[in-house]
Amino acid sequence: MSTAVTTPVVARTRADLFAQLAPKRAAGEVVLVPTMGALHEGHASLVRLARDRAGADGAVVVSVFVNPLQFGPDEDLDRYPRTFDADLELCGREGADVVFAPTVEEMYPGGVPRDGDTAAVTVEPGPLADELEGRTRPGHFRGVLTVVAKLFGLVRPDVAVFGEKDYQQLVLIRQMVADLCISGSHGALEIVGGPTHREDDGLARSSRNRYLDGDQRRQAATLSRVLHAALHEAPYGLDAALDAARGELRAADGVDLDYLEIRSPDLAPLPDPVPPGTPARALIAARVGTTRLIDNLALTIGSDETRH
User: Fold this and answer.
1) Could you tell me which CATH number the domain at 9-194 has?
2) Rounded percentage of the chain residues whose pLDDT exceeds 70
3) Is 60 exceeded by the pLDDT of residue 306?
4) In the predicted model, what is the mean pLDDT of residues 149-162?
5) 100: which strand partners?
6) Percent of the chain scoring above 90 in pLDDT
7) Of 3, 80, 116, 165, which alpha carbon lies 20 to 30 A from 236's?
8) Which of 126, 133, 81 lies closest to 263, judged by CA?
9) Residues annotated as part of the active site
């Protein structure tokens, strides 16, 4: 953690952002951490990762923008927490140089695009966006990739850091950067995935955890236990991993499952049969009360490890 606490410069407009970054860009790498605010220790770990990557000469930019385009009509856009003063304090503590906090009008000067709007250009995320999270949240990744592409164009980072908790998002952003040939100010744009930060009971940190009451908070830890059950049995094959995960889920209460899947790291289906030593990613989404939570974990299917 950074020892010196500074107050980052707050840029509200594109012109402010350009003015702040011009001298910093010449000195070293610019590293971007895109967020929607309501920052917690998981975000802090991403800012620290960005600070380490940027070094003393580079610049860390944290964007704070609640993007309306990625929220569906029945989702929690208005309810999503806004805690800018606390966010700014966290960014200063972890060594961010600039906080880019634009208005909706600044990011979408022509208005927020809506379904059927032919006058606006958005990013088409491809078929993966209709699976997993996309089955429940149609249009979500169109909104995510559109705003991330805008941020890349405005900040022109050399490196961008995203949390692995939103794993499908991370995969799609990497694909967008590759397919659209997006580069940074000094060459190729590198996308870095930061490890999921967890509570002591394994629950992945999320801005939405604050919606959970005491009983729901206890129930929410089931998601992590399900994934670790799969991890424990993965050396014995895909079926063993899924059976263990489903068994853990059946033993829980108050968890309304959306999906539980194990896929390849790029989220393609695993081969059949699965060769020993195949890397994979277990993913889960569920509702606890009215709060929808997601989590994921890397594992290896069919390794040669033995049970202890």
Assistant:
1) 3.40.50.620
2) 95
3) no
4) 98
5) 11, 63
6) 87
7) 165
8) 133
9) 43
Alpha carbon distance 172, 128 (integer Å): 8
Specify whether the backbone of 267 is left (phi greater than 0), alpha (psi in -120 to 50) or beta: left
Place 2 in a pLDDT band, splitting at 50, 70 and 90. very low
Task: Give the residue, 220 or 79, on which the prediction is more confident.
Answer: 220
Closest CA to 69 of 135, 177, 146: 146
| pLDDT for 305 beyond 60 | no
Per the CB < 8 A criterion, the answer to whether 226 and 260 are in contact is yes
Cα–Cα dist 161/117, whole Å: 31
Q: Which one is predicted more confidently, 101 or 186?
A: 101
User: Which residues lie closer than 8 Å to 141 by C-beta, 6 or more apart?
Assistant: 70, 125, 129, 133, 134, 168, 169, 172
Mean of all residue pLDDT scores within the chain: 94
pLDDT in tens, 61-117: 999 999 999 998 878 788 889 999 999 999 999 999 999 999 999 999 989 998 666
Write out the DSSP string of the chain: --SS---PEEE-SHHHHHHHHHHHHHHS-EEEEEE-S---HHHHHHHHHHHHHHTTTSEEEEEE---GGGS-TTS-TTTS---HHHHHHHHHHTT-SEEE---HHHH-TT----TT--SS------GGGGSTHHHHSTTHHHHHHHHHHHHHHHH--SEEEEETTSHHHHHHHHHHHHHTT-EETTEEPEEEEEPPPB-TTSPBP-GGGGG--HHHHHHHTHHHHHHHHHHHHGGG-HHHHHHHHHHHHHT-SS-EEEEEEEE-TTSPPPPSSPPTTEEEEEEEEEEETTEEEEEEEEEEET-S----
Q: Please give the Cα distance from 22 to 15 (Å, whole number).
A: 11
Q: Identify whether the C-beta of residue 245 lies closer than 8 Å to the C-beta of residue 229.
A: yes
Domain extents in the chain: 9-194, 207-301
